Amino acid sequence: MARILVAETEVPVREFIRRVLQQRGHEVVVVSDGAEAVVKLARLPFDLLLADVAMPNMDGVELSLKVARDFPDLPMLMMSSNTIQRRRSHDIDSIMVILQKPFTMVALNDAVERALGVRAAVAGQPAG
Fold it and tell me: What is the per-residue pLDDT across 53-77, written as a single tens digit (0 to 9) for each?
């Protein structure tokens, strides 16, 4: 399965995501903010970045712009519960999907599978 980097400040949300994705067979690495995500991205290859829009140190908007520049083939899935943050992120809608919080296990899995499917199709591999 995929190696997924999760950047989420809230511990309960981070652990929920970790459990759900690990149950699907994914390898999950978690960090608490965008700055930590950048460090992990420099050290390990990932198949997907799943990040909250609202984070300290480096928010999801800054992180997504950096990732789009430095790792253009890495799919991104952003999470947001805040309409203001979503408005701020309007310029990044073209480079990733935004998953509205709160979300269910089914919604999370569907969004992750779609994001990974896009990557597989781009790489010339069958999605799935």
Answer: 888 888 888 998 899 899 999 999 9
pTM for this model (two decimals): 0.82
HSE-CB at 21 with a 13 A cutoff on CA atoms is 26
Q: What is the set of domains in the chain, with CATH numbers? A: 3-122 (3.40.50.2300)
Q: What is the DSSP letter of 95?
A: T
Query: How many Cβ atoms from other residues are within 10 Å of residue 113's Cβ?
Result: 14
DSSP secondary structure letters along 48-92: EEEEESS-SSS-HHHHHHHHHHH-TT--EEEEE--HHHHHHGGGG
* pLDDT tens digits for range 23-51: 999 999 999 999 999 999 999 999 999 99
